[in-house]
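ENTRY TYPE: protein
CONTENTS: sequence, structure tokens:
***
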Amino acid sequence: MGFDAGFDMVPRLSRGTADIQLWACFITVVKEYYKDDAQVELKPNYILFKVGEHPSLPFDGAKFLRFSSKVSGGLSRHAETYIRTVTAAAKGIFGPRVQYWNEGADQVGYHSWAEVHESIRSYDEPADSEIPNPKSIVPRATGTDPKPEIETPLFEIKELPGKGRGLVARVDIPKGTRILCEKPLLTARSMPPDELELVLAIKLKAMTKTEQRQFFSLHKNFPGKHVLGAIFRTNSLPCGSGSPVGGVYPTICFINHSCLPNSHNNWNTCNQDEHETIHAIRPISAGEEITIPYNDGGLFAARQAFLKQSFGFDCQCTICVLPPAQRRDSDARRVLIQNLDAAIGDPMRMVAKPAESLRDCQTMLRTLNKEFADHPGAHGCSLYYDAFQICISHGDQARAGVFAERSYKARVCVEGEDSPETQRVKALSVRPSSHQSYGLCSMKWKRTKSMVPKGLDEAQFEAWLFRDGR
């Protein structure tokens, strides 16, 4: 006889986008973990565990109710180890929906055996939906769930009060982590509403049913007859800075906006494999919402107007709900950032007064750190590169090399090592003189790359780097 043990999925999984993606991720984790185990066999429609009573996991999660087996008696055959390991993996992804039970502890499953047997019989029936490739959807990191070697997703899609669905960190995510890498469901250029509606309809018709469901599951903030265009307009992100082409994504489009984001989105064209990446620009705690900026910043009123017009919502992020006095302080810092950016970008000033331009970079860095809580993200990448250009255009390879290295490290954090721009700046950090602007303005600051001073403390080094006091 013996006791049964296992886990039930409560409530059972739906055919919604979030459940499909999480189940696909779970199946991939199980496949990877048991890829060299002779007791685990991949069938056309499910994974079979040849232990105990041969429990199985279907590829279609909506069919699944229970994973269990005898764990004592003649049929156990080491089944309990597999039951506990798979349960740990499931808990790491689905949390409290996974209900473990063990008859040896007077516990029983949630679903009736009649329901369970019916669900198992359905495993060999054709799936009603296609299961997306989780490698393009959900990245994984080693978590802290019951079995630490089982990999779990970094995030989950949850309903958030006043926001609809959003991405929430499941584990602590270190700064610089690539949270997500995803290709767009579809892309489209900016065009009149009637034309866009037709283009989207044609593209949707060519997509799979799963992709179509993913598109229609996205939020729509704009009323009117152009339903497809409204979904696209609400969710699309530009495919590169300033690009007239926008893309919508099955998972990334659930990431909500913040004017003080903890993550950065970037269009990556590495090896012509175009995709959008999401990186943590500061440490993100488990349970914290993952956010990105939908705009380039600016003052409170301008941000609110842009977000309302472009995405159809009023921002209620931590910056936008500050008391009026603190919000005015934030606006003042952002005005200063805008003015400094304009001054630093003035080519005539860089030629005639490079030391002032460099000190403006130092002031801007301090202001960015204050406004963005010491995590300026992509702003830091640009600032260090501006400082690099000022120095290299006057022949200073020593300072230029330091600034290029800082820009490179900042880009690794917000874009990843494989970003073409990251690789370009990395090359400049090794050989600053390879930049086309080397000595373009003058050679009055001429220094070789090896002339970086040694033995300075941090304050002294920063003063040297920004030519503070010279």
Notes: The chain has three domains: 4-121, 155-311, 324-466.
